[in-house]
Amino acid sequence: MAAAAGLLLAACSTEAPTAPAAGGGGETQGEDASGDEDMKIFMAPKFTGLAYFEVAREGGERAGEELGIEFEYIGSDKAEATEQIATLTNAIPQAPDALVVSAIDGDAVAPALKQARDAGIKVVTYDADAAVDARDLFVNQLSYELAASTMLDAALLNSPEGGLVAFISASPTAPNHTAHVRIMKELIDTDPKYSSLSYVDTVQFAGDDATKSQELALNLIQANPDLKVIISSSAVSAPAAQQAIINAGKSGEVFATGVALPSSVRDFIKDGHSTAFMMWDPAELGYIATVAAHQLVTGEITAEEGQMIDAGEAGTYEVLADGEVQYNKPLMFTADNIDDFDF
């Protein structure tokens, strides 16, 4: 539990920090930032309308304003790979300088992203990656290992004695969710810290749909009388699962945890239905991804391993192997701090 308690618990808001001046080297925006006023960066979430992506959008918009560039938020409100592919394909003739994309299906969207790169458009993925050769950089909210261990820490905060856990993911093609579950299973199997946990091997998929998530959670409760915790990487499924637990009259016996906006689980935590959920700051993630895209376009970075991305007050981040950039600022929401977060 000490590791969980030691996670970053500082207050966090949707207001992103200040970016370095456009053009680098301390230049001010405007005429000194040659050509930046004509730069266009498009952000494409998995789908629009989801609160998590709307918060990330705020960070991207803030970066766009500070850098003096045109920022557009594009996409469909349908959580389907074909819809995102159409969004990306239709964006290419509009000649943005960069695309910032959360891939709903990393392999399915790869051809469209490769087409964009062939057209000279820089591609940065955030939140959920695409095929490595289809983008320049991936701004990963947490390393998959850190995300997995943080979710298991949250599970143990909810159920200190351990017990049986089950997983709900968005889809079998969501690369981050798939990796999270795989690593959580490995940690339960091999790490003494999590030896009190066991798991239902079959993963459920809810497509980031609240109603489907509640149905799956109820099915898991009914099929597994010893179930203690439902874990989800989906900011939709985790709170929906907790609501299903309450509806089933199992509050205090079964718990949901995983990734969730604090606003979506505040009442659950304050009312004692749940002890802990986790996340990171989506606004800062969107901010950093947009700053990284800008720096790729200006040539300040080339996505070469070892280069540094200066995101001003948001921090400095190293480009790792395969163009991965790790944000790595987990937040654990508990009764002690849930009111400190406003997103």
Give the arrangement of secondary structure elements:
Blueprint: H1 2-5, E1 40-44, H2 51-67, E2 70-73, H3 81-91, E3 98-101, H4 110-118, E4 122-126, E5 137-140, H5 144-158, E6 163-169, H6 175-190, E7 197-199, E8 204-205, H7 210-223, E9 227-232, H8 237-247, E10 255-258, H9 262-270, E11 277-279, H10 282-298, E12 308-310, E13 316-318, E14 324-326, E15 331-333
Parallel strand pairs: 1-2, 1-3, 3-4, 4-5, 5-14, 6-7, 6-8, 6-9, 9-10
Antiparallel strand pairs: 11-15, 12-13
Can you characterise this structure?
The protein is of the alpha/beta class and 343 residues long. The protein folds into two domains: 2-141 and 281-327, Rossmann fold (3-Layer(aba) Sandwich), CATH 3.40.50.2300; 144-279, Response regulator (Rossmann fold, 3-Layer(aba) Sandwich). The chain is 36% helix and 17% strand. It has helices at 2-5, 51-67, 81-91, 110-118, 144-158, 175-190, 210-223, 237-247, 262-270, 282-298, and strands at 40-44, 70-73, 98-101, 122-126, 137-140, 163-169, 197-199, 204-205, 227-232, 255-258, 277-279, 308-310, 316-318, 324-326, 331-333. The strands form four sheets. The protein has a six-stranded parallel β-sheet, sandwiched between helices. Strands 6, 7, 8, 9 and 10 form a five-stranded parallel β-sheet that branches. α2 crosses α10 (282-298), α3 (81-91) runs parallel beside α4 and α5 (144-158) crosses α6 (175-190). It starts with a helix and ends in a 10-residue tail after the last strand.
